[in-house]
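Morning, I've got a small favour to ask if you have a moment. Here's the protein in full, and shout if anything looks odd to you:
***
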Amino acid sequence: MENAAQGASAAPNDAAKVIELGLVLEAHDQHAAASVAFRRAAALDPSNPDTPYLLGVALAADGKYAEAIEPLRRALASAPRTAAIRLKLADTLLAGGDADATRREYRALVDADAKLAAAHYGLGRASTGHDAAASFARALELFPRYGAAQFALATEYRRAGRTVEAAQLLQNYQRDKMVTPPVEDAAMEKVYARNVSSTGLIRRGQILEREGDLAGALAVHQQVVKNSPKLDQAWVNLISLYARSGQPLQAEEAFRRAVELAPNRADAYYNFGVFCVNAERWADARKMFEKAVALDPGNPETLYNLGVVVERTGALARARALFQRALALKPHYRQAHFHLGRIYANERNYEQAAAEFQQAIEPIDAESPACLYALGAVQARLGRTQTARQSLERARAEAMRFGQSQLAASIERDLGVLGR
């Protein structure tokens, strides 16, 4: 911070150095001083699109909601499709008490991107009763570990007398209270990059991982555990980072350190379970996921992964129950629908299998051809030859589009058999 202050003091008319000072101040929660720097930078260089947004962020963080609205609106006018800016504007309007304007902004976000969990959560905060609960539930469906949405939905459930469901959500909230869905925000990432505390570095590492810079994320987390060796969150993250970097021994050590520091962290067992699956250590993977489910029974990803491992053993009834539990928590979990469909098909319950495969097809991507192929197969078993042919032809076309030549050839053979 001292270097940034000296740079701005030595060159008070250099917009870049004044912005740098503002970034460093904001990174260390010096919101009032940061807003002064950003206001000065905006006057020096009105063309910089980030400065009004950063000024609005700093003012809002300092509780000056009314002052923050104007620069945030200017920022949105210059970048109307940037979700992070509209989210901050909507959040600030809500904090300032303008409910009608708040709902308009959140609805605009939902209309632009129906899968933006933060927008649904915000819309819930600006609503009441059933509408609020529906928005919070949708946010959790999109991002199941959204801590604030868990707490908000639990509050609505308690008001409605749904005490058991509220209690489960509050239990999850204790685990996830600091977890929020990622929102691309290039301007604020510059702020986070200047926070060199352990928590700031972890946040930076998580951003690098989302951007695909695995080596950078790993290096940041290694620095964190060097500075703060008892910070369990860093060790939990390192399990996955080492595993994905092809360093199995280090992944094992990170898991050992994580559970020594925090023996009841379900995500440590989950991350190591994923590592064991990729290493084809199926028995170890099952133990890890069983432990994670025992610690956190409300996590659909853990239930799904345990179901996949159990399915391999032939215990289809148990696997089916696990996939159904995952879907109860996350209704649009396409992989769970697909695996559940396979189990129903193996049990010759083709009608139910078809219904599950149907729900796994969209969104259309590289996973869709296999889902369409499976759907066509069970439709043929049901004697629906024409419908089966349509599904298989679509599966073949999608497989070719995604470069899945072997799958396309298998589908072609089945179409030939179907035509006889």
